Amino acid sequence: MKLKLLSLLALFVFSVFNLNAQVNYTSRPSSLQLYPRDINDSATVNISGDVTTLGFTKVIFTCHKNGTLLDSSIANIGYNGNIAPFAKAYSIRAEKSHYRFKMFLFNGSTSTQVLRSDSVCSGDVYLINGQSNGNAIANGPGTEIPYLWVRSFGTQKNDSAACLADTSFGLGNGTTGNNKLSIGVWALRLGKMFADTSGIPVCFINGSRSGTRIIQHLPSVDRLDMNSFYGRLLYRVQKAGVTNKIKGFFWYQGESDTDTASFQYASRFATLYNAWKQDYPNLSKFIVMQTRPGCLITQTTLYHQQTREILRSLPSIYSDVTLMTTVGIPDFDGCHFLTVGYLQLALQLYNKLCDDFIGKSAIPESDPPNLLSATFSNNNNTEISLVFDQPVLWPALFNGYDLKDYIYLNSTTTILSGSSVSNTVKLQLSASTNESKITYLPGIYYAGTNTEYAGPWLLNTKNVGVPSFYQFNLTNDLIITADRPTTICGSDSVILATVRIGQTYQWYRNSILINSATAQTFVAKLDGTYSLIVKDGNNLTDTSNVIVISYGSPVQPTITSSSGSNIFCAGSSIVLNSSSANAFLWSNGVTTASNVITTPGSYAVTTTSINGCTSVSNAFVVTMETPVQPTITSSSGSNIFCAGSSIVLNSSSANAFLWSNGATTAYN
Q: SS3 for 344?
């Protein structure tokens, strides 16, 4: 068979090279195609269909890997009428290897090549969507040429006819913008790093469009509407055969939604997110890039900070969304990055995602620092602590600009200085304040200029920036405390106080202002609900927690005897018990719940509740008796009786009796 196969292959040198022979394919690889890898790091390449021209007797398949023949297979052709079906499947590894597939039809004397697919591979597929920074056109030095192991599919042209017509794979291009096989500068670099580190080829399909709003990316009722950005991207993904194998989705958009469209951004993202989850069902990771100050500056784009805050908040809403900030990345031209800046973004994305996507150990501090809390951290509210999930560095001056001037409170109070120790940034304020919100970074400009903000930034030790935040909740806990338990008795009082200093005070009882109660402490002598309101120099107020003071009314204890009697015999004792479970003090000095009494007299018990209120029982009188020794007499006057008769003995006592022979009557 091998000899016969070699003879057939020898004929190929003289065969007719005809890729347009009448063959209908149901499945076939194309040159430069990337097949998504499965959990076994491989993919199946199917070649199947029907021969629609009579006269062929055999079909021959060949597979080469990196130029070396792996397989040659011959199968007889069997026609059913004018149709002869064929099928062949190959498994290819997800690695930096290129496979070539050929198919020939043989009629007994000549052969016809009907398929040739070069540089087929298996790897991972990613999608990109957004606006111009998603396109990431090359700008300046550092441009990279296409790379064999970074592929793409179709065209990014804003033209439905062109998109429908272009269904081919190719090498991803990082420089051409909205054109065939365009993926952008940072995607090309990121793909190269993924492929070179893991040995797994990648494919990026980019649906970004410059200057677009999020609403323009929403799906139509017909998800495959080719007049929509959404439909064209979905069409390309389906035609590439990768719909169910998308590894990650990158979203870089928001600059165009910094006008009143910002108000609808969160709900529109939710619509888009839900559509993605339906149309790319196995997609498990979304990467959102937060925009930065600048870009699309008009008198109506007043909501840069708000849009950035929505982007920052998405990971807290969607468990499969993660954030990458773009603040702090150099080489920003005011709206886009120079090529060097996009390459820095690619590095940050690689460091953050390598453990998720290519199984490489996580890079420490590759995530943007996440702000965990903002609280006042001294007694006079002149210091704020920002606590992050990792160390953050306070920056030096940048071109004469100080970061303290670009962290804002909603009042005239300003930041005097800043510093950082490990995970905490400390801000010293110009005055005591009750501010409740804090913002990091301006909308667009340096203060008092038309110059777009370019730093300084809060960065971690790996130069990854803290995401811009807007109106973050500033915890301002005004606490009042009591110096003792809050149940009062008789003329008792409770001292209420706060450690807050440097502000004005007003105490309230039952929500009613207490006249002249304007000190840091207050002596409460009445029952009721107490609170404190303080006011800073900007008339911003803060309200404390509530303390409830009530009058004590302990239950009067009672005294009982363990024997049920208040009488005991001389030389013995009686046990008295208090009904109260609180603290005890008996009138004879005993401090336990039970009191062993050996002396007759009047006894009482005082109990004290946990709030200090006392109550005294009624007196309990204990009596001691000394009983008279009884005498025994005989009824007959004699202590002798005859056999067969009896004698009656009598006791002189009128109390209970117990004779030595067990009798219990007065006589025996």
A: helix
